[in-house]
Design a protein that fits this description.
CATH architecture of the largest domain: 3-Layer(aba) Sandwich
CATH topology of the largest domain: Aldehyde Dehydrogenase, Chain A, domain 1
Largest sheet: 7 strands, mixed
Mean pLDDT: 95
Radius of gyration: 26 Å
Low-confidence stretches: none
Structural class: alpha/beta
Helix content: 25-40%
Shape: globular
Number of helices: 16
């Protein structure tokens, strides 16, 4: 949580469990942000000049510092977000794994490599490398204040960029902790932090960075894009989600129930790729719903230190959660567990809704609380069609023994987990991001590294060409030879290259 700014130009982050002040932080002005970007530009020259191996050594040193102090970071995260200590420690562990992967794989995916020149340009040696953009602005969320922004920060740094990070006003201390430990490990402020409210984030968009990576709501993402458009600054947008689980008739129901409940209620439901909708085959629907309701009734959010569900970090989200539940019930839905009374002053109890119309708020809009809708479907095809209706398309989950991959391929989303939930986020080599109102661009994996670069193509003449084509001295004979060559190479048109022909058993 955060307080309103004081006249002194500061704001306080609050513990959402208790309302106590965690720390006070400066509100950086547009001038402060511009100065931070200028300093980052100066540092980027040094960082960019290092080899991949040298940058990796620095990043792995930082990784060691974060790892040795992960309990300290997890405790700070617990105080600023209210999430359980165990969940905070898991988040740090995942971020460490991604930092390691980015540092040790940047050279493989970004360094210069040869590419085929083609027959016409056979005399040219062709190669491509991915060069750092310069300075990346990262605007991070509060729900996963380490793991999510590190998906941009670590990959941008590994690619050779400097980074200026604006953490959420609800979790500024986490951002400052990351920058402080980086400076301790590396000795130079290649990665720095500015703190403040929305105006500080807007200033970062306009401060002359070479790209902005934003994670947050779709509405705020549009405002970020508008600010960046003023200077043609490219953006990566990881926005909202309304992720679905599809449960086929042959699914392991115990696993599907556990995954659906955890995906809906972990982090108090404040997960962009969390579970908000479940579509269950009619043959197993009754059993699934009975098991899910029974498990949800045993799960409680309390103010105790060992509560499995923490508070709602952003107070205004409480009214959104309440309105979605109320709309679902008013339109014929039923609450098997929870309901509008489940929404308290700081905590929301697990809520399972059934018989909810597909055009209700609880199905169409991101709720961002520990609630889930469950619907019976006659076929998996119906489940796929309903899943794909959403304007959001971030992640998804499929539970099926026989058709998991087949179903996953038909779901419109950036990522899909089969017989698990949100597992794709924990695999550093996989790209993470959505389509539609869930945003565009990717973090993580080779795509995430390249997101913070531009491709630099080079051709080098190895020997003089047999046909001199790029000259005003080109002869009519050369023109005729070109036509003959192209006819021979491409005249048949329908012949597939050998590499594209399906292997036996693939038809």
């Amino acid at each position: 949580m955060t307080t309103t700014p004081e006249k002194t130009g500061t704001f306080a982050s609050l513990d959402p469990r208790t309302g106590d002040v965690v720390a006070t932080h400066p509100i950086h002005s547009a001038e402060d942000v511009a100065a931070a970007v200028m300093r980052a530009r100066e540092e980027s020259a040094w960082w960019m000049a290092l080899s991949f191996e040298e940058r990796a050594e620095h990043l792995l040193t930082w990784k060691g510092v974060v790892t040795r102090r992960m309990q300290q970071l997890a405790d700070l995260m617990h105080r600023e977000t209210g999430k359980p200590h165990g969940d905070a420690a898991l988040e740090v562990a995942l971020a460490i794994d991604h930092l390691h992967w980015a540092a040790t794989h940047a050279k493989k995916h970004l360094d210069r490599r040869r590419v085929p020149s083609g027959l016409l340009m056979a005399n040219q040696a062709a190669s491509v490398a991915y060069r750092p953009l310069g300075v990346i602005g990262v605007i991070g969320p509060w729900n996963y204040p380490v793991f999510t922004p590190m998906g941009s920060i670590a990959y941008a740094l590994a690619a050779g960029n400097a980074v200026v990070f604006k953490p959420s006003e609800f979790t500024p201390g986490v951002g400052e902790w990351l920058a402080r430990t980086f400076l301790e490990a590396v000795g130079r402020p290649v990665f720095s932090v500015v703190t403040g409210l929305g105006d500080t984030g807007a200033a970062l968009c306009r401060a002359g960075v070479d790209k902005v990576a934003f994670t947050g709501s779709t509405a705020t993402g549009k405002r970020v894009m508008a600010a960046c458009a003023e200077t043609l600054t490219p953006v990566v947008i990881e926005a909202g989600g309304k992720d679905a689980v599809i449960v086929d008739h042959d699914a392991d129901l115990d696993a599907a129930v556990e995954a659906s409940l955890w995906g809906a209620c972990a982090n108090a439901g404040q997960t962009c790729a969390g579970v908000e909708r479940v579509y269950v085959h009619e043959l197993v629907y009754d059993q699934f719903v009975a098991q899910l309701a029974a498990a949800a009734k045993e799960l409680r959010a309390t103010d105790s230190a060992d509560s499995p569900i923490g508070p709602i970090t952003m107070p205004k989200q409480l009214e959104i959660i309440r309105s979605h539940i109320a709309d679902a019930l008013a339109r014929g839905g039923r609450a098997l567990v929870g309901g509008t009374d489940a929404v308290g002053d700081r905590f929301v109890q697990p809520t399972v809704l059934v018989d909810v119309p597909e055009d209700s708020l609880a199905v169409t809009e991101e709720t961002f609380g520990p609630t889930v809708t469950v619907r019976k479907v006659a076929t998996v095809e119906e489940a796929i069609e309903l899943t794909n209706r959403s304007k959001y398309a971030l992640g998804s989950t499929v539970f099926s023994k026989a058709r998991g991959m087949e179903i996953a391929e038909q779901v419109r989303s950036g990522m899909t987990a089969i017989n698990g939930v949100i597992t794709f986020a924990a695999v550093p080599a996989l790209p993470f991001g959505g389509v539609g109102d869930s945003g565009f661009g990717r973090i993580h994996g080779a795509d995430g590294l390249r997101e913070f670069t531009y491709p630099k193509a080079i051709t080098r003449q190895r020997f003089k060409p047999a046909l001199a084509l790029t000259t005003f001295k080109r002869t009519a004979k050369a023109d005729q030879q070109l036509i003959s060559m192209m006819t021979m190479m491409h005249g048949r048109g329908t012949t597939l290259p050998k590499a594209m022909k399906p292997r036996r058993g693939e038809r």
